[in-house]
Design brief:
The chain is about 40% helix and about 15% strand. It is α/β, with parallel strands linked by helices and about 325 residues long. The strands form 3 sheets. Strands 1, 2, 3, 4, 5 and 8 form a 6-stranded parallel beta sheet that branches. The protein has a two-stranded antiparallel sheet with strand order 6-7. Helix 9 crosses helix 10. The protein is globular and about 50 Å long. The mean pLDDT is about 95.
Length: about 325
């Protein structure tokens, strides 16, 4: 089984723990994602989010830069098993050599401080995907939609070859991205609002709009985005419910728009998928429901790989 995951928060968690004096590494750790378990499961690529809480960090830009430096050192220590990628050619070369690919993303566009030169600097640092916001209004996006600066950033991202990520955007912001985007965009870790009404999830129309643009939606494993009601006060993450969201996305947007966006190390609560090595449980559930082998491959890696074939070119 080959796997590509569009979103995990392992970098920010490891970085935070390192600042607290706890030495945990990418190669092996107590989180949900490490190199040993990625290899065991069959991952060919993991997106690593550089997440910054602008409500807590005095200097969000430096925090993001620090995380990039940290994860690059961790990757370089294990270069025989994993290497950073910036283009589709890098990904294909790693796959041919039997190495895992690491793609860096930004979760919280405000780390750029509204300055396009900083966006370009992050691109040069290897960032290839970015959300406009996290859980706060900022200079790029508010509940009312993208700001003028946000629209300008979208155009700059597409010019550079950085994939816009609409996870965490408001409904108005989503439709602004759809309106102005000329290339595919993603929702790296979002679920179906029809099955779970959380504001972070996507309506059926949004699912169709992403599919129309040639984008991909990464199914989020967090119970809060899977279930409408907790059980005994807990939002359980069950593979059966993850499968429900996958099949709903396929029904609404078609097989080509669905991928994985686990959000590993970015959520709490009980989960059947306790870490990245347990993806075989989801594979088993989908097969039990009759998914075709070609459809399973599409969801687990091919749709995202095809997206990267389209967007992560060496030259635009």
């Amino acid at each position: 089984m080959s796997i590509i995951d569009m979103h995990c928060d392992t970098v920010s968690e490891l970085y935070s723990r390192r600042k607290q004096g706890l030495v945990e590494e990418l190669s092996s750790n107590q989180l949900c994602v490490d190199l040993e378990r990625l290899m065991k499961a069959g991952y060919i690529l993991q997106n690593f989010a550089i997440f910054t809480d602008i409500g807590k960090e005095e200097n969000p830009f430096q925090c993001a830069k620090g995380q990039i430096d940290f994860i690059r050192k961790e990757i370089n220590k294990n270069s025989d098993k994993i290497r950073e990628v910036k283009t589709i050619d890098d990904i294909l070369e790693n796959r041919k050599a039997g190495r895992i690919s690491a793609l860096l993303t930004l979760e919280e566009g405000e780390v750029c401080g509204g300055k396009e030169e900083k966006l370009e600097e992050f691109y040069n640092d290897g960032i290839r995907m970015m959300t406009f916001c996290w859980n706060y209004d900022n200079s790029l996006a508010t509940k009312a939609g993208l700001t003028e600066k946000g629209i300008s950033f979208l155009a700059k991202m597409e010019k550079l070859g950085m994939i816009p990520d609409v996870s965490h955007l408001s409904e108005a912001g989503f439709y602004d991205v759809f309106r102005y985007a000329k290339k595919p965009f993603v929702a790296s870790h979002s679920n179906a609002a029809t099955l779970c009404g959380h504001k972070r999830n996507l309506s059926d129309d949004m699912i169709r709009k992403i599919a129309e643009k040639g984008g991909v939606i990464g199914i989020n494993f967090y119970g809060l985005f899977l279930e409408n009601k907790p059980r005994n006060g807990v939002y359980y993450s069950k593979v059966s419910r993850i499968a429900d969201h996958i099949f709903h996305m396929i029904q609404v947007g078609g097989i080509s728009c669905v991928g994985l966006g686990s959000d590993f190390d970015g959520f709490s609560g009980e989960s059947e998928l306790t870490d990245c090595s347990k993806l075989y449980l989801l594979e088993r559930e989908l097969k039990k429901r009759g998914i075709l082998e070609s459809e399973l491959d599409a969801v687990f890696y091919k749709n995202i790989l095809n997206l990267y074939q389209e967007t992560l070119r060496n030259n635009w």
